[in-house]
């Protein structure tokens, strides 16, 4: 299933998006009409908390509605899509793609060089070969906790922070968790994945590069209103299959800027979840970003 959060008639709802990606089905209204409990469909977090029973009910309602109940379907063009999970219980973002780690290392050095020596210094650094991948990225999953309160959805306007002159986009995939637990084993982590979505991690690169010289961060480099864009919907694992090996593309104002593939994560999501869950409770409704797919942000070129 494809599950969306949307606003219609002043109310926020969750629904199932049809196979064509053109309509959305009102789950709470369908439950009321069927004489079933509507509480699991009050929000995406409520549905996540309802676990597999909630998903089974959502699937059944949508299948029954597919044969009728046309008034419970709305064209996506007639509603406002929000982030599928507007307020995650936690958000973490990783560094899982070797090529992006190498590219961002060189790009960050180039930004700092430009601050001191101008555009010529920037070009000189960018002309250098990509650095070797530091060993640490192969030893443990690397991630940071990001701001769960700055989430926006599709078509949102993200305002460029006044303190930045180098704004960047970053194409990632993400998982949304289910079943609150600690000490999750990697072999069991797939059972804690509610679904997958697309994540656009916006970055104020110039501020980020300055902050991270202090061996902490990113702070204001990645924390401003609208900096975490998610959506358009969550796809359940049974529909998406293997999250690695998907073709992806970045478009800016309709123009394709770069393409890539989600294959080759240094650590799969299951291992990232298991690492985070060591002596720490991972709650249903958290978001884990994959890190940027190689070549799929604005600063570094693809080679």
Characteristic key phrases:
303 residues; six-stranded antiparallel β-sheet; Fumarylacetoacetate hydrolase, domain 2; seven-stranded mixed β-sheet; globular
Strand content: 25-35%
Proportion of helical residues: 25-40%
Shape designation: globular
**Model regions low in confidence, pLDDT < 50 over at least 5 residues:** none
Strand order of the largest sheet: 7-6-19-10-12-14-8
Structural domain tally: 2
* Oligomeric description of these chains: single chain
- H/E element string? EEEHHHEEEHHEEEEEEEHEEHEEHEE
CATH class category label of the largest domain? Alpha Beta
Q: How many E strands?
A: 19
CATH structural architecture of the largest domain: Alpha-Beta Complex
The overall pLDDT, averaged over residues, is: 93
Terminal Cα span = 36 Å
By secondary-structure content and strand pairing, the structural class works out as: alpha+beta
Number of helices: 8
Description:
It is built from eight helices and 19 strands. The two termini are 36 Å apart. It folds into two domains: 2-81, no CATH class; 90-289, Fumarylacetoacetate hydrolase, domain 2 (Alpha-Beta Complex). The mean pLDDT is 93. The strands form five sheets. Strands 7-6-19-10-12-14-8 form a seven-stranded mixed β-sheet, covered by helices on one side. Strands 1, 2, 3, 4, 5 and 15 form a six-stranded antiparallel β-sheet that branches. Strands 9-13 form a two-stranded antiparallel ribbon. It is α+β, with helices and mostly antiparallel strands and 303 residues long. Helix 1 (27-34) crosses helix 3 and helix 4 crosses helix 6. It has helices at residues 27-34, 44-49, 51-65, 98-126, 136-139, 205-211, 237-240, 269-276, and strands spanning 2-8, 11-17, 23-26, 73-75, 80-81, 90-94, 143-145, 151-152, 167-168, 171-177, 181-182, 193-201, 203-204, 228-230, 234-235, 247-252, 255-261, 281-282, 286-289.
């Amino acid at each position: 299933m494809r599950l969306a959060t949307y606003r219609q008639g002043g109310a926020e709802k969750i629904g199932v998006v049809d196979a064509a990606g053109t309509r959305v089905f009102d789950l709470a209204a369908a439950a009321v009409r069927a004489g079933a409990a509507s509480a699991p469909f009050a929000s995406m977090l409520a549905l996540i908390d309802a676990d597999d029973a909630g998903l089974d009910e959502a699937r059944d309602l949508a299948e029954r509605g597919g044969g009728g109940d046309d008034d419970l379907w709305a064209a996506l063009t007639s509603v406002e899509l929000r982030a599928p999970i507007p307020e995650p219980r936690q958000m973490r973002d990783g560094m899982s793609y070797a090529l992006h780690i190498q590219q961002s290392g060189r790009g960050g050095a180039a930004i700092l060089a430009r601050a001191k020596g101008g555009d010529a210094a920037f070009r000189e650094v960018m002309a250098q070969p990509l650095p070797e991948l530091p060993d640490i990225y192969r030893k443990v999953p690397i991630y940071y906790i990001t701001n769960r309160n700055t989430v926006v959805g599709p078509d949102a306007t993200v305002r460029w922070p006044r303190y930045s002159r180098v704004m960047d986009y970053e194409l990632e995939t993400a998982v949304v968790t289910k079943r609150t637990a600690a000490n999750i084993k990697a072999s069991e982590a797939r059972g804690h994945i509610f679904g997958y979505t697309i994540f656009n991690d916006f970055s104020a690169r110039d501020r980020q590069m300055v902050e991270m010289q202090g061996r902490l961060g990113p702070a204001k480099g990645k924390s401003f209103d609208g900096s975490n864009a998610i959506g358009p919907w969550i796809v359940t694992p049974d529909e998406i299959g293997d999250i690695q090996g998907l073709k992806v593309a970045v478009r800016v104002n309709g123009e394709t800027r770069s393409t890539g593939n989600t294959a080759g994560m240094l650590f799969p999501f299951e291992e990232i979840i298991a690492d985070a869950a060591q002596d720490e409770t991972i709650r249903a409704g958290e978001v884990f970003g994959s890190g940027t797919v190689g070549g799929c942000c604005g600063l570094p070129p693809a080679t």
